[in-house]
Amino acid sequence: MTKISPKPIKIINEEVKWDKTQTIISKTDIHGTILYMNDAFEEASEYNKIELIGEPHNIIRHPDMPKVAFKVLWNALKKGENFHAIVKNLTRTGRYYWVITDFTVDKNEQGEITGYTGRRKAVPNGVIEKIEPLYKTLLEIEKIKGEKASELYFDAFLKEETKKTYDEFVIDLFQSEIRDTKILEKDNKENKIKKSLNWFFFGDFL
Question: Which residue among 15, 63, 147, 187 is buried most deeply as judged by most CB within 10 Å?
Fold first, then answer.
């Protein structure tokens, strides 16, 4: 199978435009080779299906992502555990897009792992703002001290600051964002009601 020749991609600090209401779906074999991708994947990654089928999934790995995040992911998948991850991906033109991925493990009738299915949705800005600083710290440690040091810090961070596994941490970030959004929407609604009442009762004086 013909592979895409690796070419340096000029990194552009710009988010690609894609339909964030869509779910990006891909399937890989046990080695991470892409077997299937849907139209939403094409749009977000700026690659077409012919180019990506048969390629390793890490072809869209953004250099801003610390390696330890993928190590935790693969360790879980190899044990047959479903997994959530927040990932910054690289497009064909060097742009980026953030996704929350729900990985599921595909098995045959004998219970053997045959591959993985990833379903990805857009990430709210509030979640990105919380996790991006952590990724930057992990990446800096990785560059200066090595991957092992980055992994040790990541483990310590999860134990000391979150008391959660990475998967639980990701889910908690989204649940917190939903709660914050609902509170904000409630406050905005109450403010609109107050403004309406103020106008109704005191409009002539405002």
Answer: 147
Other beta carbons less than 10 A from residue 76's beta carbon: 19
Residue 206 has pLDDT above 50, yes or no: no
| Rounded Cα–Cα distance for residues 77 and 127 (Å) | 23
DSSP SS3 for 145 = helix
Alpha helices by DSSP H, 46-165: 49-52, 67-78, 125-145, 147-157
Q: And the tokens for 188?
A: 């905005």
- Asked if the model's pLDDT at residue 11 lies above 60, the reply is yes
Strand runs labelled E in the chain: 24-29, 34-37, 83-90, 96-107, 113-122
| Lateral strand order in the sheet of 96-107 | 34-37, 24-29, 113-122, 96-107, 83-90
Sign of the alpha-carbon dihedral angle for 189, 191, 192, 196: positive
